[in-house]
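Form 7-S
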Amino acid sequence: MAFQLQNSVVAVDSTAPAAAGARTVARRRRDAIESMSTLRVPMWIAAAYVLLTSNADPDLFGHLRFGLDHLRSWRFSSADPYSFTSDLPWTNHEWLSELTMAVAYSWAGALGLIVMKGLATVAVLLVIARSVKDAAPLWRWPSALLAVLGMLPISLTIRPQIWTLLFLTLMCSILTGPWKRRAWLPLIFLLWANMHGGWLVGLGVLGVWSAFELIEPADDRPPVWALILLPAGCLLATLINPYGWHLWGFLAKTVRLTRADIAEWQPLWRAPTGSIIHWIAAIVWAGFAIRFAERRSLKAIAASLMLAYASMRVLRMVPLFIPAAVILLIPYVRRAGAHQRQASPRGKALIDVACACIGLAVVAWPLAPGCVHMTGSWLPDSNVARAISAANLSGRMVTYFDWGEYVIWHFGPKLRVSMDGRRETVYSERVLDEQRKVAYGDPGAMTRLQAISPEYAWLPQGLTDRAKPWFASHGYRIDVNTPTSFVAVRNDLPRIQSVAAGAAPCFPGP
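Output:
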């Protein structure tokens, strides 16, 4: 009897350390989850910053001008009225984006552009939120924050890339859901092909995803006919555009992995530190997502790897790769339990709302309502622009690449430019190379320019020491000379007078 009692005591005592260990593990898990949940705060602030901050870029001026032209005429023209060097029929493959901008601007000016961008951004944020909502809390908030921060370079500007961001994230969300939802994909590609050339990225993701689905077990995949016909339908939908087959040929000739003269087309190793950090963070996150996935998906891994490689080669792909990878991989990580899917306590909801309000206040307080900010090293001198405007010039103006569409917006078509950001849509490589050499004062290019004898030139200081002296010694005078730029005027034309300085912090400026 004593022996049995002793054994029972030992048995009871042996369960105590195991129970204590289980409680310790559970407590550590709760602590980890709570620590990750605190990422709600920066996530809300990042989302507020994305929604409220809008910056002009060099192409916004042209996109809006061309959209307003289309809104007035409702016709497509292959003739370019804005440049005196263009030598290709104008293929305006982003016409629908520009028309959307024009409608928004006609409705409410710069505020309309902000609202348009905000609606597209909210749609992207909703797609991300829907994708992460069923993940375990340990994954949910880090993934959401990574995706929101990753999309910053696109979502802070107003340009056609915002539609590629929206359509790509929406397509990735559809691919990870029930296969019958893919019936919407042809419509998405129809719109996408008329708004931005990034539909090629979407087609690549869809092709890789569908190819890997073909090797999955039959019980886990859509019908084979769907895997073949739906991608084919998406491809054919892109032919519904004003240029038909020509759009494919145009993109085949112009899309490439490098463009030496455009910062966004540089490889990742030449990128700013922030972009490199974002890319590395996404790669680390993807590695953990694959390593700790409840079920590994070859199609999601392959599509994410394709985007990772493309973003390593072309910097502008980074803000597409990060949210897309999150949406593609997050469904396969640990799912939230039933108790974790319950609605958040009212206290946490109030904290979330407070954080959102703080984020809105921090971002919006110092800014003018409805302001699309004009900042950055690319921006031309607004005081020089005022002087040109006051002189009411007409004719031909030699321009710098980044300033071409700024001049088109403010002074075109009375002043026609030598070069602008439309690149291959209106200029051959020969013309682009020639005009770049002119801006840098290349002797051979300047000799050929002399035969054209344009009326004006507005170029940055400091590109070389050759352009300004050449103009001054070849029948031009330097009427405007500031620390950032100079304006050369042909000697037979009236002088441009300087005007009082003034600030131009918001689009469209002076």
